[in-house]
Amino acid sequence: MIKKWISGYTNSILESKEEHRMEFTPYIRFNGSCREAVEFYAKAFGAEQPKFLTFGESGENPAWPMPEEAKKLIMHTEITVKGKKLMFSDTFPGMPYEQGNHITIALMPEDEETARKIFGHLKEGGKAEMELSETAWSSCFGMVTDRYGIGWQINVLREH
Predict the structure, then answer these.
(1) Cα separation of 18 and 134, whole Å?
(2) d(Cα 35, Cα 28) in Å, to the nearest integer?
(3) Structurally, how many domains does the chain consist of?
(4) In 10 A of CB 84, how many CB atoms?
(5) Whether pTM exceeds 0.85
(6) Residues 105-128: pLDDT tens digits?
């Protein structure tokens, strides 16, 4: 399931890669109300009904056991409004959530070298929330909060 979903997601990003060298996308996190909020936004903006990937559908990593309450929460979803993407997720249990940290900017550089350079600069005086590493959907993914409190997700998408 996750591979099919990731394939469709990365293909939609890669389709626009020819026009844009790098995309900046708002990424909004919720504290358990992602599904309800995104369905509301899709209706409000006239977007197609989104597909939802839950943390439970993403598979478990033995090094990071998944709490039962996390399995139904939304790991990722997105809507497209007038050709522009908005991305969303629930906050994973145990991760901090407070007003101000629930919106991040998802950045999709073309390659890992660029991703590492940008991540390194953003990390100076800031804090790596998740160091750059390979994931199921990305050859290089990490999350960092810069010295000004802005959250960034750096994501080099796999080409399928």
Answers:
(1) 24
(2) 12
(3) 1
(4) 10
(5) no
(6) 888 888 999 999 999 999 999 999
